[in-house]
């Protein structure tokens, strides 16, 4: 089975850039909980824009690469186990065409294929992030072990939670829809 890293299309014409999620239970400058699902509660959140532009069905925020999806994309993925959606109110002058949601999965799978990937690991003496010692960073090529990832449709990788991975089954479903902003990178 094939697996794909889901990214947003940075070359989408006149695209918008989404900044940071805010809310009653969100500390400013800290959106990590939207990568793991820890502490994310069911409330309406706000989202600031770095630069306004053309709406996309799939966008990663500039702050912490949180996936923001349109109602159309949400509806296509509602059946996926372990994925939750939280309504987002965009802070922009014009009204959005669609409703938007932060897409969160707490599913972490230990499937990083170290033999086939090109990467570095944070060390305890890292001058900037010693707190992340042992975690992956600077991943130039990401390979997923298909045996360890089998049976999972949308997930993040243990020790590398910024990568959002989808199965080939999910990619095929999304490819059939006319959705904007999606970019799939093969993890092999």
Features:
single chain; 188 residues; mainly beta; six-stranded mixed β-sheet; five-stranded mixed β-sheet; 4 helices; globular
DSSP summary, beta strand count: 13
Which percent range describes the beta-strand content? 35-45%
Give the end-to-end Cα distance, rounded to a whole number of Å. 10 Å
Runs in which pLDDT lies below 50 for 5 or more consecutive residues are none
Number of helices: 4
Instruction: Give a quick account of the main beta sheet: strands, pairing sense, barrel closure.
Output: 6 strands, mixed
The general outline is: globular
Enumerate the strands of the largest sheet in spatial order, edge to edge or round the barrel.
Answer: 2-3-6-7-5-4
Q: Helix content range of the residues, please?
A: 10-25%
Order of helices and strands: EEHEEEHEEEEEHEEHE
C-alpha Rg (nearest Å): 16 Å
Helix and strand composition category: mainly beta
Query: What's the rounded overall pLDDT mean?
Result: 94
Molecular structure report:
- A six-stranded mixed beta sheet has the order 2-3-6-7-5-4. Strands 8-11-12-1-13 form a five-stranded mixed beta sheet.
- It starts with a strand and ends with a strand.
- The chain has helices at 33-36, 71-77, 146-149, 168-175, and strands at residues 3-8, 17-22, 45-51, 58-60, 67-70, 83-91, 100-105, 108-109, 118-121, 136-141, 154-157, 160-167, 182-186.
- The protein contains four helices and 13 strands.
- With 188 residues, the protein is mainly beta.
- Helix content is 12%, strand content 37%.
- InterPro entries: Imm11.
- Pfam families: Imm11 (PF07791).
- Residues 59-185 form the Immunity MXAN-0049 protein domain.
